[in-house]
What does this fold into?
Amino acid sequence: MIPVDASLGPELAEFWSKKYKETKEELDNLKTLVTSKSVESSEILDTVRSIKKTVDDEATLRQKLEVAVKEKEELASRVAQLEAEQSLLSKQLVLVVTPQAQLSVTQTKLLAEEVIQQRHSAISRRFPPVQFVERSEQMSFTFTDYREMIGHLPDLFSQERLRLQFVVRPPGSLPLCLPVFGQHGFWFYAPFHEPFHLVAQMGPNEWSYLGQYISAPLANDEMKLSEWMALEEETKTAHCSRQAALTSDEDPLVIRQRYETGERKIPCCSLQCVGYSKLLCEALRVAAGNARLQQMLQQQQQTSTPKDAQAGRSQEAADASQKKGKRKSSCGGPLIQDKSLPKKTRTSPKVIFKLESGLR
It folds into this structure.
């Protein structure tokens, strides 16, 4: 038998109790550590699986991309082959069609010229010959905007007293058919039964006064299909667009198709020359020059410095003061200016003389 000291019992119990608690705490810590490691392992495993899935998907996409690249190369090769065949066919078609197309265009132009000559002959039989002005007296003038130029005309030629008709050149309008200025002709516009003065555009910003005219419809003499086909493409497209703007329910392509099939026609009106105003022609030339001068002055004012503008105002004030002193007569009273003439006319002595000469 092993002797046991009963007096050591409480100490041993306390010792083993302490050891038990420490061991249990250590075991709990180990369980917590194992659980956290298990969670981390699960997360790592999920990450590995996701990476593996991404790699597999990338490999699949790479295979699909290689197939697509291969198909694209095959398609590019087929397209190049088709383009080569198309180019060859186009060349063969040009060799076959071009002579026929050129012949057709030439025949169309000849037919259009024949129609125009027949219409001129009919108009010459309809109206007696006139000779209002010599051909050598034709005058051209330059301006950019006819509305601005009209503002520089004397009051004698205002729109209320005088009817002016400005016609732009194709493609802005249909052709104006006059053999020479001051003679009879025709155009494809609405009739004007009252006399009007015709100003036509001859080139970029270049205009000419053609004379005074009366316009009337030519019965059963619309623009022929050959005349329409002989027009420039830009002119036909612009005219169809203008007609479509007037009728919102029609498309320009539909309008053009109706012209080319003869379903829709363009009316033709005569231009009977009834006069030629040399005075108006000179007034238009002067007004065009004044409009250009005003534009140049405006450009100079826009490019001038504030110092130059101030100097200009000082010079204008000095000129105004000097003119005010000159306007006084020898007896000290102001001179009376003739108010019977329009203001714009009074500013140009040369125009005054020509206006008075023409009125007489």
Q: What stands out?
A: The chain has nine helices and seven strands. The first helix runs from residue 9 to 126. The first strand starts at residue 140 and ends at 142. Strands lie at 140-142, 164-167, 176-177, 185-187, 196-203, 206-217, 269-275.
